[in-house]
Specification:
Length: 274
């Protein structure tokens, strides 16, 4: 005798709501109970919870969820400029713009949609943007959640009129961690880095792993595609996988959590407990 099995409807697992400011929020869910929330303001992932309901992203208690202010926390999209390395406002304007749901995105490989709950978003250059950054573009972002609760962000930038331009971007990821003294980052040892607290002077990492004893703001150059953030107190490991641009930024300041930014095309964050 045969048997039947329930089939998970990934479209039904995507819910669109509005927050108290009238801004649309997209909630992705998995059959095991993991979830992610994405705000159309900045295309920003503002929440990522594992199957136990534990929040994995930090959001500041001072965060303002109202355009045009950037949301401090989650995963802001820094583009078309990272930091203050250009003429635009800090971290560019993408995180301060209202994105749209992309109902007909260009195709991605089958394994980037099969078995996942996902949403596609798009930001197109406006006349206002062109005044300060005169380049015509489309920035597409797919946010997806696997059955196991792994969060994936894939960015694609299209040049509309064919005129060359340069840009940078980063996923400014705020990870929820315990006491910073319990945090260890593996995968950046022996790499050269630019220290933003010392006028971007270049140093070489000497430790076998990175731990925190004071404020940190560094850009690690030509980093590997897999980096691990270990939280010993919570017995949790974040595995960050990236593909694309090579550098990684990590920051810690006393008024916020540990922040690991992947300056790359794709970042896969594994939030399962190990």
């Amino acid at each position: 005798m045969g048997h039947s099995a329930a089939v998970w409807d990934y479209r039904a697992a995507t819910e669109i709501t509005k927050d108290w400011n009238g801004i649309h929020q997209i909630v992705l869910r998995t059959p095991r109970g993991a979830s992610a929330q994405v705000c159309l303001h900045g295309a920003q992932v503002t929440s990522w919870r594992n199957e136990h309901g534990e929040e994995l992203l930090f959001t500041s208690s001072k965060a303002i969820f109202k355009a045009p202010k950037a949301i401090r926390g989650g995963i802001p999209i820094c583009s078309p400029q990272f930091g203050n390395c250009g003429s635009l406002e800090l971290h560019g304007f993408a995180r301060n713009r209202m994105w749209a749901i992309d109902d007909n995105p260009p195709p991605l490989p089958a394994n980037d949609s099969s078995g996942k709950s996902f949403i596609d978003l798009v930001l197109k250059s406006s006349e206002e943007d062109m005044k300060g950054w005169p380049h015509s573009f489309e920035f597409r972002l797919r946010v997806s959640l696997t059955t196991d609760g792994d969060l994936t962000l894939i960015s694609r930038v299209r040049n509309i009129n064919g005129k060359p331009f340069s840009f940078s971007f980063a996923y400014h990821t705020y990870l929820m961690v315990s006491d910073i003294s319990e945090i260890r980052i593996e995968g950046l040892e022996t790499l050269d880095y630019l220290d933003n607290l010392f006028q971007k002077e270049r140093f070489t990492e000497q430790g076998d792993a990175i731990t925190f004893e004071s404020e940190v703001d560094r850009v690690y150059l030509s980093s590997p595609n897999i980096i691990a953030v270990l939280d010993h107190e919570r017995k949790r490991t974040f595995v960050i996988r990236k593909d694309g641009l090579p550098d990684v930024v990590h920051q810690y300041f006393y008024d916020m959590c540990s922040c690991v930014e992947s300056m790359g095309e794709e970042i896969k964050i594994n939030g399962r407990l190990w």
